[in-house]
Write the structure tokens for this entry.
Amino acid sequence: MDETRFAAALGQLNKRIGTPVREGAVKFRGTTPEAVLPRPGAGLDARTAAAPVKAAFLAALRGKPTTTELPTSPLRPKADANEIRQVAAGPARVAVSGPVTLAVDAERVTVEPRSFAPHLVFAPDDSGKLRLVPAAEGRGVDSRALGDAVAGAVLLPQGREVNVPMTVDKPRVATDHARDMGIKQKISSFTTRHSCCAPRVKNIHTIADILDGYIVRPGETFSLNGIVGKRDKARGFVEAPMILNGRYVDDVGGGISQFATTMFNAVFFGGLQDVQHVPHSYCISRYPAGRESTVSFPQPDFRWRNDSPYGVLVDTAYTDTSLTVNFWSTERYDIESKSSEKYAIKSFESKTEPGPKCIPMPGAEGFQIDVWRIFKQNGKEVRRQKFHTTYEAEPRITCQ
């Protein structure tokens, strides 16, 4: 089957039976970028329609013509709303941040943003598709051998030069292996938001950079603590508030539970296996109730298993006020989330505490909630998974 022509044929059919997709874009009003958010459509999806159409065609060749029902499903824009917002807040603002100088021989002409901004537009194309980067060996310092060499050199009055011992670092994933993993489409994406410029944002960006581009192989279990290790200042983590024993305290790496929560939701909607996630003791309003995870070192860890036959690529992105985790692989399920109402509600108490290390807390009711993850294939439910969460009442702390 020529998949390109097949998709084009379905596109023509969708013009008659479906609702067209509206692609998002960033346009400029004067020199101010404005996000035009995308709108999903509905119709026949080439990925789900290909297999039954092939089967019907082969049945007809065998003299057994059949009628094939193809369910309509949501059609996704090339870029989602979060990606459009990220472009508006990032590259689009850079585009009009200063003039452009045109040079011809010795002549220079300066063009101000107000002149060229009306002619700019950011629109999604196919450049967001994955590109295989060949693996390559690296070189690293043999830290144990270096320690021995330096320990010996510092005892010498002369000749204190040390040749740094190096080792060869093999790639985790070879080029051929990566090519055969079936990493070809975005299977899930989730974004959480936060206030700008607090110390915790530095920690969120640091861990996002560490894990960006990480590949989880088929059957492999991802452990956030196992891969990232203890958060330390040497790698750029800073002190920020975290919850410890029911109180906010400052600790290096505080705030990265936001990354764990964002990735947990990418796991949730990617249809991958949850191995270990521990909800916060208190409900945090910026996260979806019953669909969030805390993390600390060495415990609690956040772990999930790639229970698919395909590799999963972790793709992270962030702005000053948001964090996004995308998973790329081969889609197996359409995932829906359903939540119960809050129940077993508990009121919170108010306290006043002294001391320079006291961090105020706003107070929030405790409650219980159930969340179901519903797995669907070709529009039909194949199974569902229940997550039960109990949140304690968060006290209102006033610091003296």
Remarks:
- The chain is about 25% helix and 30% strand.
- The chain has a mean pLDDT of 90.
